[in-house]
Amino acid sequence: MNIRPILEHELSFLEEMLLEALFVEVGQSKFPKSILKDPSLKRYFDAFGSSKMDVCLVAVHHQDLVGVVWGRLFTEKEKGYGFVDIRTPELSMSVKETFRGRGFGSALINEIIQSYQLIGIKSISLSVHKNNRAFKLYTTLGFTVVHEETDSVIMKKMI
Predict the structure, then answer these.
(1) Tell me: the pLDDT tens digits for 110-131?
(2) Contact predicate 126/91, CB 8 Å
(3) 20 in helix, strand or coil?
(4) Is 26 left (phi over 0), alpha (psi -120 to 50) or beta?
(5) Cα angle 64-34-37, degrees, rounded to a multiple of 5
(6) Cα separation of 61 and 114, whole Å?
(7) What's the CA gap between 91 and 54, in Å, rounded?
(8) Which helix (H) or strand (E) holds 138?
(9) Residue 144 in contact with residue 135, Cβ under 8 Å?
(10) 123-129 β-sheet, strand order
(11) What confidence score (pLDDT) does residue 26 get?
(12) How far apart are CA 21 and CA 132, in angstroms?
């Protein structure tokens, strides 16, 4: 496994993996790709890299991209689903299904924490569905629930 910054020509991988990251209950159909046109999702990848706070790392296995974690700062006016405040980057992460449970997610999170620490960030946040098995991963990695909805939570980690 290799974790490295995403290359410019790989940025379309964010869209692919955001679609993969959208939680779907067992037995339900996956979301159509057209959902990525929704402004509430498009903000996660549109013009990515235009801010120094846009940080993205990919997991590479035998030269194939198998996972990604990325973070962005959002504003009060255009919040992400895991918005905490204007100084806390919100993370998005996904690992291809066949590579889950093999340490890629933990490695990605740990690496992006180091990247954000280097530029002076003190906390990160994310949103996760309560039934998503990633919820347990985030808890294990030290994220705590700061806001709870019916089906999802916003989690934060001081770094």
Answers:
(1) 999 999 999 999 999 999 999 9
(2) yes
(3) helix
(4) beta
(5) 95
(6) 21
(7) 10
(8) helix 134-140
(9) no
(10) 2-5, 55-61, 64-72, 90-95, 123-129, 152-158, 144-148
(11) 81
(12) 10
